[in-house]
Write a structure and sequence with these properties.
heterodimer; A: about 180 residues; alpha/beta; Rossmann fold; three-stranded parallel β-sheet; two-stranded antiparallel sheet; B: about 550 residues; about 80% helix; about 0% strand; globular
Chain lengths: ~180, ~550
């Protein structure tokens, strides 16, 4: 089962956090008691338990982002698609999310993470795909991408940022008539 | 950055709407034009009728002008207060303006123009043709028309400035969203009371001289002199002498209007400039209490939907929760109830008891039309509650779209949520009005059976048009229900209802004749229901297919 978090996760303004998680749980087939237990657990885990009964319209951007992520996890997905999940999170929230993603991956979940932050990709991802103008121009581990960048004639790139620039400029050069 | 530059996003958006959908813009312009001309003809007719009524005719029309301006003033004051809450404090586009190097006074001016335009267009739509008819009836000179436009323009500024001041005061002391909800409920109650009040005054009595004398007495007592402190009096005192009705001091009163409008505008600018940051900052925070407990509504709804299958039950509970917590949605029910009250009252007041053949013919006609009228009243409710359903999912649509719930399942959930209450509403409405008309039981049964597929088609069409013309830029259902798609939906329903009534007219007429002779053939009921109901069933199926296709393509 897949879980999805869009880059701008709009929520139902007039539902509370607890109600939202229960509702999403029911859409994914969780029974009422299971959904309630799971919702309470996730709210606790994401530091939102104190605000569980507040309408989502009153929550801060960071809180809404965490709540949306909790909604993506409520049905224990094995595949998770996250679009820019760090946007709007404070440093503490970002650190917490990184820990959580590592734990989920260790537990066997597959996570597709789309990000413009190469530092995040470098730190968290075991396989990295580079998409340029809608085309997947490279896919592999960081080491494989480094090797490929060197093969394209560039110097030894130390960071993912340098690898990215090398591969994208090579891909753009291939397209130039 | 000038005020004009600040208004450019709105103007560009309007220009883009016209460029991208010229047909849509032309249709809306045509409808507005038709309404404008219709209002003008109606006003001229009614004013002309009053004006020719002996000695007190001109006196009556002048009092009516006072009444018109007083009504405008009340409506504008409330409407500006509610609109200013959004344009100044809740709209998303205020944030980039706040971060720009922009004096708050200029921001006030730009927002003021937006507030005034958004609140006052309805008054301009009704007010200008009304004033134009005054000019025509009194055969006024060109100066009157120039003054009418000027007076209305200046007059609009006064309630707008008062509205901004009231809103800013409220936001400083109460949470903005709660204030908005309280205001919306107040508006719903006031509108409902106003509509009921006007109907219960029984304006039809004015067609009879005796009733008219009573009404003239009411108007004579109603602000006979007009308070010299009210801008409504000043506006009337500018226009009436220019109509040539009596001498006066129009320049003095125009001066009063202009100076008061200018003073209030500058006061509102000065106050907003001083407190805007504090007020805006307060309006951004809801009433957060750190509430960790479950709300009582959740428990009640969970109990209510327990017998239903899981997904439809959850969707119903979610939709009901959102509906009940959003005052902008349920407050309009108050107006709907008032309109239904009037509808029923009108039927009870129909003069059908004089036993003449004309009364019988009228009753038969009213009976045949009653199915259509009942269905159309229900459609008006559906425009407000079914049409916005998909739009209201809004940008949270991703939650449903990514869940393992088939689109057909979502469609059925939305359908039942709309169908059950609307069918009950339509059935009760038609059964009650039929009882008031003393319609024979076989005809009532025919109508009630026809409503089953007809209301299904109305709801299905609502979902189809609502999905084809969604609006995700607003969470205000009332605003969604006034869009282009909503107008098309109303027209489609009107066409379908007219077709169904037309198809049933002949069998129902036969049933009415049979009832008079004491015989009645089941076959005619079957014929009537299958003709009208069959058509509605086809419309239901076609609309459902279109809605599902549109749902697949729906992107936020």
């Amino acid at each position: 089962m897949t879980g999805y978090l869009p880059d701008h996760p709009f929520l139902y303004d007039k539902l509370t956090g607890l109600e939202l998680l229960r509702f999403v749980g029911s859409l994914y087939g969780l029974g009422a008691a299971d959904a309630a237990r799971r919702a309470a657990g996730l709210l606790e885990e994401f530091g939102l338990a104190r605000m569980a009964g507040e309408l989502t319209e009153t929550l801060s951007h960071g809180m809404r982002q965490r709540l949306a992520l909790a909604a993506a996890l409520v049905h224990r997905p094995r595949v998770l698609v996250l679009d820019e999940p760090m946007v709007g999170l404070d440093p503490e929230g970002t650190l917490e999310l990184r820990r959580l993603l590592r734990r989920l991956a260790t537990d066997g979940a597959t996570i597709f993470l789309s990000t413009h932050s190469l530092a995040v990709a470098e730190e968290l991802c075991s396989r990295i795909g580079i998409i340029d103008r809608g085309r997947l121009v490279a896919l592999g581990t960081l080491e494989e991408l480094r090797a490929r960048a060197q093969g394209d004639g560039g110097p030894d790139p130390a960071s993912l940022e340098a690898v990215f620039l090398d591969i994208v400029s090579a891909a753009d050069g291939d397209e130039t008539p | 950055m000038t005020v004009v530059a600040l208004l450019q996003p709105r103007l560009f958006a309007l220009r883009n709407v016209v460029r991208r959908g010229p047909l849509r813009a032309a249709t809306v312009a045509g409808l507005v034009g038709a309404f404008w001309i219709g209002s003008f003809v109606l006003f001229t007719h009614v004013l002309g009728y009053f004006h020719r009524l002996g000695d007190f005719g001109p006196f009556l029309t002048q009092r009516l002008l006072t009444l018109l301006f007083l009504t405008f003033f009340g409506v504008l004051l409330v409407s500006n207060t509610v609109t200013a809450l959004t344009t100044y404090y809740l709209a998303g586009e205020v944030v980039p303006l706040l971060t720009a190097p922009l004096p708050h006074r200029r921001l006030h001016h730009a927002r003021f123009v937006e507030t005034l335009a958004a609140s006052s267009w309805m008054v301009l739509l009704v007010g200008l043709p009304a004033l134009l008819s005054y000019g025509v009836v009194y055969r006024a000179g060109a100066l009157f028309y120039a003054a009418a436009v000027g007076v209305l323009g200046v007059f609009l500024v006064i309630p707008a400035a008062l509205g901004v001041l009231v809103t800013t005061g409220l936001v400083l002391f109460f949470p903005a969203r709660r204030t908005r909800e309280a205001l919306l409920v107040g508006v719903g109650l006031a509108l409902g009371a106003l509509v009921l009040g006007v109907r219960l005054l029984r304006p039809e009595r004015l067609a009879h001289p005796a009733g008219l004398v009573g009404f003239a007495g009411f108007l004579a007592g109603f602000g006979a002199k007009g308070s010299p402190w009210l801008p409504t009096t000043w506006a009337v005192e500018v226009l009436v002498p220019l109509l040539g009705a009596r001498p006066g001091e129009p320049l003095f009163y125009l001066g009063m209007l202009v100076s008061t409008a200018a003073m209030l505008f500058l006061t509102s600018a000065a106050v907003v400039e001083r407190v805007f940051l504090a007020a805006w900052s307060r309006s951004q925070t809801g009433r957060v209490r750190g509430d960790a407990t479950e709300r009582p509504l959740t428990g009640w709804l969970a109990l209510l939907v327990r017998p239903l299958p899981r997904v439809p039950g959850s969707l119903l509970a979610k939709d009901a929760t959102v509906f009940l917590r959003d005052a902008s949605q349920w407050s309009q029910l108050l107006l709907v109830f008032a309109l239904v009250g009037i509808y029923l009252y009108n039927f009870s007041a129909l003069p059908l008891d004089d036993g003449t053949p004309l009364a019988d013919a009228m009753r038969d006609l009213a009976t045949i039309l009653n199915l259509g009228l009942g269905a159309f009243v229900t459609t008006a409710v559906a425009v407000r509650f079914v049409f916005p359903m998909v739009s209201l999912e809004g940008r949270a649509w991703w939650i449903l779209r990514t869940a393992p719930v088939p689109l057909a399942g979502l469609w059925w959930s939305k359908f039942w949520i709309g169908y059950v209450p609307l069918l009950a509403f339509a059935e009760v409405l038609v059964a009650t009005t039929n009882a008031l008309l003393r319609v024979p039981a076989p005809v009532t049964i025919t109508f009630l059976l026809t409503l089953l597929p007809l209301m299904a088609a109305v709801v299905s069409l609502g979902l189809a048009f609502g999905t084809a013309y969604p609006r995700f830029d607003t969470q205000n259902a009332a605003q969604i229900a006034t869009g282009f798609g909503a107008i098309l939906y109303m027209l489609a329903c009107l066409g379908l209802i007219a077709l169904v009534v037309g198809l049933e007219a002949w069998p129902v007429t036969r049933l009415l004749r049979q009832a008079r002779t004491g015989t009645f053939l089941v076959g005619d009921v079957v014929k009537a229901v299958s003709a009208g109901g069959g058509t509605a069933a086809v419309a239901f199926a076609v609309a459902r297919r279109r809605a599902l296709r549109a749902l697949v393509r729906l992107e936020i």
